[in-house]
Amino acid sequence: MLEVRPEIAAMPGYHSPQVDVPVRLNTNESPFPPPPEFLNEFAEAINSIPWNRYPERTAPRLRNALSRHHDVPAESLFIANGSNEVLQTVLLTFAGPGRKVVVFEPGYQMHVQISRIVGSDVVVIERNDDFTLDVDDVRSKLTEADPHLVFLSSPNNPTGQCDDEALLDAVLESTSGLLVVDEAYAEFGTWSAIDRALSSDRIVVSRTFSKTWSLAALRLGYLIGSPAVVDHLWAAVLPYHLDAAKQMAGEISLRYIDDMNERVSRIISERERVQNALVDMGIRVSPSSANFILFSTDIDANTIWQRLLEEGVLVRNCSSWPRLEGWLRLTIGSEDENNAFLQGLESAVKQG
Ligand code: PMP
């Protein structure tokens, strides 16, 4: 009889039900495909790949392009297949079996899940009722937990809020471990820890091509940290983990920064419009600095989710997640998709 590790056997897995409906606003992707010029350039470029050879192990061209994009040294960049793999590599390198990882809840479920997969013990620090964190409370709980690694998402998924930047100091001063700032949504937010990561070997920042860059299908993410930390990550990750086509696509996409900035502005202005409309309808929202909005109504969340689905709109039902009973999450879509959501929600709420 095969014996599965108990941590894995106990896992619910990562499920975001995909239903074939016209308006899918449940997984925080960009509503827009990448620019056609990018796709043409990429299609042409793959002909020049030496397909019989392994790819370059540390993606030097993509690293150089990212280094120019963020104005950081190439040695401070680690790259992997989506930011989830970045986080897994960080955990394998600095946490792993028997070591402690702190997460703030509600937060990104995969921080907990990947930590458990690599055998770490997870300690949860609860957010306040309004999903903020109290800096003094965080200090005392972190001192007590004494973790090897702390995750902080800013903006936080699924609440959408940016935490106070002073939390970075609280974490550094009350632990001796590594602080991982997950900035999957930073382009929509108010601050970034990149400068801090460059000057401290106790902070790293993870980023993704899945949101702003309209490239969720590509699976590409990266980390910015001190070269000493980054060197260990390159040692821990599998050899040739990043295929040549992906390296090329990432490098080419960075030439389209103006298109991407324009999309971010469009999404932010839609987010503000939808947020205001929800407030006008008397619906509770968690103020968002991301490309999604967490909301709750006076009606049971499962009922709202189902009624929206009947209107052809899929959102994420977060109701069974820790501390989120009654809450749903909407990914900001195109103007038409957001209007379909607002209309669907209005009629779902009216039914009482
Ligand atoms: N971090 C956070 C906070 C996220 O919400 C997500 C995507 N859901 C990720 C990381 C993973 O992104 P990816 O692996 O697509 O880069």
Keywords, please?
single chain; about 350 residues; alpha/beta; Aspartate Aminotransferase, domain 1; Aspartate Aminotransferase, domain 2; 2 domains; four-stranded antiparallel sheet; globular; binds 4'-deoxy-4'-aminopyridoxal-5'-phosphate
Total DSSP helices: 13
Tell me about the largest β-sheet.
Answer: 7 strands, mixed
In which order are the strands of the major sheet placed? Answer: 2-8-7-6-5-3-4
Helical residue percent?
40-55%
Overall shape: it is globular
The share of residues in extended strands comes to 15-25%
CATH class category of the largest domain: Alpha Beta
Structural class: alpha/beta
Please, could you describe this protein's structure?
The chain is α/β, with parallel strands linked by helices and 352 residues long. It has two domains: 6-33 and 258-350, Aspartate Aminotransferase, domain 1, CATH 3.90.1150.10; 36-256, Aspartate Aminotransferase, domain 2. The protein has helices spanning 6-9, 36-45, 60-70, 82-94, 109-117, 135-145, 166-174, 194-199, 227-236, 244-253, 257-280, 301-310, 335-350, and strands at 23-24, 77-80, 100-105, 121-126, 149-153, 178-182, 203-208, 221-224, 284-286, 292-296, 313-314, 316-317, 327-331. The protein has a seven-stranded mixed beta sheet with strand order 2-8-7-6-5-3-4, with helices on both faces. Strands 9-10-13-12 form a four-stranded antiparallel beta sheet. A hairpin with a 5-residue loop joins strand 9 (284-286) and strand 10. Helix 6 (135-145) packs parallel to helix 7 (166-174) and helix 11 packs parallel to helix 13 (335-350). The longest helix is centred in the last third of the chain and has 24 residues, at 257-280. It binds 4'-deoxy-4'-aminopyridoxal-5'-phosphate. 4'-deoxy-4'-aminopyridoxal-5'-phosphate is lined by residues 28, 82-84, 108, 153, 157, 182, 184, 208, 210, 216, 221.
